[in-house]
Amino acid sequence: MHHNNYSSVTNNKFFEAYKNNQKMNYLQIYWQSNLLEMPIYLLFIKTTKKERPWWQNFIFISGINSITHPIVFFGIMNFHLNYLQNIFIAESFAIITEAFILWWILENELFFCFTTSLLANFMSWQLSPMITYILNSN
Fold first, then answer.
1. The pLDDT value given to residue 65
2. Helix and strand numbers, DSSP H then E, in the chain
3. Given this model, what pLDDT does residue 128 score?
4. How many CB atoms lie within 10 A of CB 87?
5. What pLDDT score was predicted for residue 24?
6. 126 Cβ partners below 8 Å, 6+ apart?
7. Best CA proximity match to 67, nearest among 39, 46, 42, 96
8. Residues ≥6 apart with Cβ < 8 Å to 97
9. b/e for 48-76, b at 16 or more Cβ within 10 A?
10. Nearest 5°: phi and psi at 53?
11. Which strand (E) or helix (H) includes residue 7?
């Protein structure tokens, strides 16, 4: 029998909500992730030269998340690897893709876009599983 060093982490109750797709409402997961990332991205956009009303920025950030989130949730998280390997690949994809989109559209420094994306995705990666667990526990 093969045991990996991550068994205590991958069997954690908070992550169980993410692993069991049949019991989750995807729109709930998408919106909580989007809303957790939103304050960081809105602060970032305020530093750019592209001034828009807040609601246009909200739509812009939601659009970026609408590109990356389904790929992460339905695609990468279903790779036949352990949970930590999947989450590493998924979060790396989201961080890099979102940073590139920010850089391309908003024409800000790539390092600043990457740092912002890293912070926003780290926030949602850390808090979303706990919120999902709390909202879906009986």
1. 96
2. 6, 0
3. 86
4. 20
5. 61
6. none
7. 96
8. 67, 68
9. beeeeeeeebbebbbebbeebbeebbeeb
10. -65, 155
11. helix 7-10
**Residues in the chain with pLDDT values less than 70:** 1-24, 138
pLDDT, residue 129, reads 83
pLDDT at 16: 59
Confidence (pLDDT) at 6: 46
The predicted model scores a pTM of: 0.79
| Cα(92)–Cα(86) distance, integer angstroms | 10
**Region class of 73: left (phi > 0), else alpha (psi between -120 and 50), else beta:** alpha
Q: Distance between CA atoms of 123 and 18, rounded to whole angstroms?
A: 16
Predicted pLDDT at 60: 94
Secondary structure (DSSP) of 14-64: HHHHHH-GGG--HHHHHHHHHHHHHHHHHHHHHTSS----HHHHHHHHHHH
